[in-house]
Amino acid sequence: MADDANSSTDTIIEKPSEEKPTEVKPAEVKRAWADEVDDPDEEEQPTSSTSAEKDPELNIGSLKIDENKNTEKFLDEPEEGNIKAVTGDTLYSTAVTFEDLNLSEEILKGLYVDMKFTRPSKIQSVSLPMILTPPYKDLIAQAHNGSGKTTCFVLGMLSRVDVKLRAPQALCICPTRELAIQNIEVLNKMGKYTGITSFCAIPVDRARDIPINKRSPITDQIVVGTPGTIKKWMSVKKLSVDDMKILVFDEADHMLAEDGFKDDSLRIMKDIEKSTPHCQVLLFSATFNETVKNFVSRVVKDGNQMFVRKEELSLDVVKQYKVNCPDEYAKIHVIKDKIFELGEKLGQSIIFVHTRRSADVLHKALSDYGWQCTSIHGAIEKDHRDKIVKEFKDGLTQVLISTDLLARGFDQSQVNVVVNYDLPVKYEYQSEPDYEVYLHRCGRAGRFGRKGAVFNLLCTQKEHMLMGKIENHFQNNIVEISDWQNNNEFESALKAAGLI
DNA sequence: AAAAAAG
């Protein structure tokens, strides 16, 4: 990463007349998310003269907002540490309010009334002007888990499509069915008053599937789905890309990784390029390792880029612990006696496991002890997967066992405990931890700056070694719980995490 | 020695 790349905003280019350009200010101050409202720095950052002319109440460049505005959401919001904006020759204004973005009345209504949003988060205020301002440059955006990336690309898609044109104009590609469903739900809620319609292109159980040749072409403006199904719809010409204006990759590092969906993603990108000269490409993720960062920077050459340093990516508000477990039995008992008994009344928990089989085994073991929980992985019937997720999101279940199916993107604000029953490892080198997946798993807790705790259950020498590498990688100290049977240790852990 | 998607 070019560390000096954050100062390239000196050239002003022609902007639409009603826009008042101000400098993109890469946040350089390190701070914990939850400190945001108490942080005196917030109010003392220099104000740019252009924004002062525009509205004396509005202090663009800092995060101060009109005091008449409801700042409730503001209090909850995570603060982005160290974003670097490489803006090339285009100057963008950061948005302090959603009104600053020239969003339509209909979209604003969806944001305020249905989403109950009051003000853009940091990533939103920086990236949305880049997305919505001509010449609609491509964008690679990295921001913390739970900081509101989905809103960025959903608003981008909603704003850029023409509701009068009954043809697909925006496409969002996700790594799992669950994420596609979640994104389309956000989209539909935010776009409720726009008249824009959407289509979810994901695999369904065969019993419910309508043969594709019997289906009519998609006329919805926005399509959200998984790579295989999108490719299938495109190949039979039921998904036209002729009018495509904006292409989004959610969890983009995984979508463009060698061992992820690279081939599918590039195929789709090229097919769109062939039939539409100017389709804006947006890549969003909380993680971009060096390899994939280099690759995506080549794929999306002339776009805007914002990255976060890896040491600042680990969420401070989500406290991480390592639990010494002498054997597998101890791991199960930690979950049974500590996570269930202490954690249950605190909210919801997700337990991550390495394989489908261990998900089944753990689920059965806990059920045999009489504990209610559910489990999800890719070998489960799709209708049932949807049901498990819905029950969990509706708060009907408290503990969900999952493979890495839900490691990325899954957004359930009530989750404040994550358990790594085993640590994620790289496929090629199983002695190397998968740092990105680790971070994504942790990110299931502490959504939008909320408190959370992660318990890593360690048994073998290898697991301790993996843990050490993770601590070293993110340069953070993970507190040890030495006695897995000690209630006091768990209680003080939960207390330190702010959960009790 | 994997997960997911999809075939």
Automatic annotation (TrEMBL):
<dbReference type="GO" id="GO:0016787">
    <property type="term" value="F:hydrolase activity"/>
</dbReference>
<keyword id="KW-0378">Hydrolase</keyword>
<keyword id="KW-0694">RNA-binding</keyword>
<feature type="domain" description="Helicase ATP-binding">
    <location>
        <begin position="130"/>
        <end position="306"/>
    </location>
</feature>
<dbReference type="InterPro" id="IPR011545">
    <property type="entry name" value="DEAD/DEAH_box_helicase_dom"/>
</dbReference>
<dbReference type="InterPro" id="IPR001650">
    <property type="entry name" value="Helicase_C-like"/>
</dbReference>
<keyword id="KW-0347">Helicase</keyword>
<feature type="compositionally biased region" description="Acidic residues">
    <location>
        <begin position="35"/>
        <end position="45"/>
    </location>
</feature>
<feature type="domain" description="DEAD-box RNA helicase Q">
    <location>
        <begin position="96"/>
        <end position="125"/>
    </location>
</feature>
<dbReference type="Pfam" id="PF00271">
    <property type="entry name" value="Helicase_C"/>
</dbReference>
<feature type="domain" description="Helicase C-terminal">
    <location>
        <begin position="334"/>
        <end position="489"/>
    </location>
</feature>
<feature type="compositionally biased region" description="Polar residues">
    <location>
        <begin position="1"/>
        <end position="11"/>
    </location>
</feature>
<dbReference type="Pfam" id="PF00270">
    <property type="entry name" value="DEAD"/>
</dbReference>
<protein>
    <recommendedName>
        <fullName>RNA helicase</fullName>
        <ecNumber>3.6.4.13</ecNumber>
    </recommendedName>
</protein>
<feature type="region of interest" description="Disordered">
    <location>
        <begin position="1"/>
        <end position="71"/>
    </location>
</feature>
<dbReference type="InterPro" id="IPR014014">
    <property type="entry name" value="RNA_helicase_DEAD_Q_motif"/>
</dbReference>
<feature type="short sequence motif" description="Q motif">
    <location>
        <begin position="96"/>
        <end position="125"/>
    </location>
</feature>
<feature type="compositionally biased region" description="Basic and acidic residues">
    <location>
        <begin position="12"/>
        <end position="34"/>
    </location>
</feature>
<dbReference type="GO" id="GO:0003724">
    <property type="term" value="F:RNA helicase activity"/>
</dbReference>
<keyword id="KW-0547">Nucleotide-binding</keyword>
<dbReference type="GO" id="GO:0003723">
    <property type="term" value="F:RNA binding"/>
</dbReference>
<keyword id="KW-0067">ATP-binding</keyword>
<dbReference type="GO" id="GO:0005524">
    <property type="term" value="F:ATP binding"/>
</dbReference>
<dbReference type="InterPro" id="IPR014001">
    <property type="entry name" value="Helicase_ATP-bd"/>
</dbReference>
<dbReference type="InterPro" id="IPR027417">
    <property type="entry name" value="P-loop_NTPase"/>
</dbReference>
